[in-house]
Amino acid sequence: MALSRSLRRTSPITLILATILAIGFIFFLWDPSSSSIPATAHQRQEDAAAHPLSPPTKPFPKKQPQRADGHQAPPPVVHYHMNDLTTSDTSAERGERVLILTPMMNFYQGYWENLMKLQYPHEFISLGFILPKTSEGNAATVALQEAVAKTQSGPVDDRFASVTILRQDFDPPLQSQDEKERHKIENQKARREAMGRARNSLLFTTLGPSTSWVLWLDADIVETPTTLIEDLTRHDKPVLVPNCYQRFLNPETNEMDVRPYDYNSWMESDVGLELASNMGPDEILLEGYAELATYRSLLAWMASTDGIEYDPNRVVELDGVGGTALMVKADVHRDGAMFPAFPFYHMVETEGFAKMAKRLGYTCWGLPDYFVYHYNE
């Protein structure tokens, strides 16, 4: 059979190349990996950190470049344009990165499930944890790693930009983490100084140049609104804390009820100032103890629990803040506000942080009618 004029004039090389292209096109169409990667996965790959030394605020690249001789290439010089970094009341729309930091003694499944429900785009959230090297800390680390591995290998939209897990390089001052033991007044100074050290280690290790906001979220916070990040950043405050309550079974009514839990968010009083003025340099004031009645105005008691004047957007100025759920503009930390592990104007840890922030010219705020809930031990 005679070939047509067009085929007789076609080069065999052209036919071979056309066949290869056709086979490649068919393979691309039927390759399951090409259709299973959603656009968000590709965007995350494009948004990966520039090199392995990049601060953990972006996804890390899985493969690092190598030189022609097979050795690992040195990390490049990276320029960070921090003047372009924003902290606004439309954080999600602007893609502002949030760093959620959690000092963890025990792993609560409710904490992780609540974290997973946050509606803020997870691709803009980095997580950081610090755990002690104790038997409880070891068990919590194993449980945390399992939860992280499951999430980071699951649906792309559920994955966080990066996760950092640190272990404390110092022994905790208390061997028992029983709630009653933790809250004894004689244990507070050593305990909270150690907590300050842990928070600072976590902060200084994980805060990167792409971070706009830092959300301190305690490991025993098991219930928050799913819009927690959007709700807090919408106020555009340098330091903002919601009211921390706890659900419990009321023995008097035999029904579920709520009660205040965190008493570390307050407005200063003349009595508190007078007590501090008569203290030695290494003494600290504590809130919520009858032995040190400061008569401060506590955020816990400002809530409109009767529902008559309830307003979740109502804000009040504070002099002290707790750390159960604390939203901070990253620039406040960059300017030097940390968690003093030593008496700072007779305050330590989160209350000392509030004092530092105020000394740097920032104002601390609280939301009396916006609630997060603490695990009930």
Automatic annotation (TrEMBL):
Belongs to the ANP1/MMN9/VAN1 family. GO terms for cellular component: mannan polymerase complex. The chain crosses the membrane at residues 12-30. This is Mannan polymerase complex subunit MNN9. InterPro entries: Mannan_Polymerase_Subunit, Nucleotide-diphossugar_trans. It is a single-pass type II membrane protein. Residues 39-80 are annotated as: Disordered. Keywords: Golgi apparatus, Membrane, Signal-anchor, Transmembrane, Transmembrane helix. Gene3D superfamilies: Spore Coat Polysaccharide Biosynthesis Protein SpsA, Chain A. It comes from the Eukaryota. The lineage of its organism: Eukaryota, Fungi, Dikarya, Ascomycota, Pezizomycotina. It is found in: Golgi apparatus membrane. One of its GO terms (molecular function) is alpha-1,6-mannosyltransferase activity. GO terms for biological process: cell wall mannoprotein biosynthetic process; protein N-linked glycosylation. The keyword Protein biosynthesis does not apply. Its main location: Golgi.
